[in-house]
Amino acid sequence: MLLERAELPPLDAVSHLCGLQAQEPQEPFAGLWSRLRGFQPDALSDLLTGRQVVRTHLMRRTVHLVTAADVLAWRARHNAMLRQRVLGVYRRELAGVDLDELAAAGREVLADGEPRSMAQLARAVADRWPEPGTRPLGDMLVAGVLPMVQLPPRGVWRQKAGVRNALVSSWVGREIDPLPTEDGSDPVGQELVRRYLAAYGPAATADVRAWSGLAGLPGAVAALRGELVTFRDERGRELLDLPDAPRPDPETPAPVRFLPAFDNAILGYDDRTRIIDDTDRGLSVAGARVVLVDGRVAATWDVETEAGTAAGTGSGKGARESKDTVVVTPLRAFSRSERAEVAEEGEQLAVFLSDGESARVRVGREV
Q1: Which of 67, 121, 297, 298 is the most exposed place for a label (fewest CB within 10 A)?
Q2: How far apart are CA 120 and CA 218, in angstroms?
Q3: DSSP 328-348
């Protein structure tokens, strides 16, 4: 949805994108603004407070904004990966902890239906496991062994709020779907691959792994072979795609687009050279917001107040002040027409972020 803004409701867009990376709570709003025609931020906030989309640890153990239907269908397939990724950070601290017992203890604490911060939940079970410390216990509980969501107002447009966690089952109204009986074909993995390719294909199995954090989904890919088409990229890697997926001509003009931090248009691939130069790859994991020019990362952007302090996307009073400015820092030299197109799109972004109070944009020189 970056070649042309789509006429889609926000819920359908979140579903099509397989969720939006939401480690920074306000970033999904800019991600949808760049993809949807006439996007209104309150529409996404209403989906969050209405429990149709949720904030949860899922792909790559990062916080994603996904539909409630997708977290119910996909969470069980991610369970083992989520546990292992938390253990990768706290293996020594959690060495003596039975993770199934920890999950049961966490569920017992949460049985009263009250949301809790990670620290509150960890302290509630720390008398049973005093050695690891609250951070390892809390991280494993909220991101590893329990299917949990972060409750609004966190993630609501222009709201700042701490993290309060609740079980998916208590917030959405039912337990996550159990994994089907294992026969090697991995039906949930098949659906993940189909959905990923619909949004991001053609792609290699390494790209699927980089996006999901799962180990390549070999059973799913093998089961899907008969319904996929294959290509080879410039390096000779096999690329998979759905047969009826759009594959625009390489000469199709790509308009300027402003992407939020950690957007899956970049992080959703192992080979990111399709969209960002290797010399700039570090920007994609450092949380830089980027500007696409002709379909490739060509600049970074931020929001600056008159005093020169950064204001997070759509967050706080500063983003509504008329003197806020969208500041673009090119990574390469722009032609006159590119600079004009970047400035025009930046003005529209400024209008969006400020609720119409500002159209200020400043395009700097190449760094």
Answers
A1: 67
A2: 39
A3: EEESSPPPHHHHHHHHHHHHH
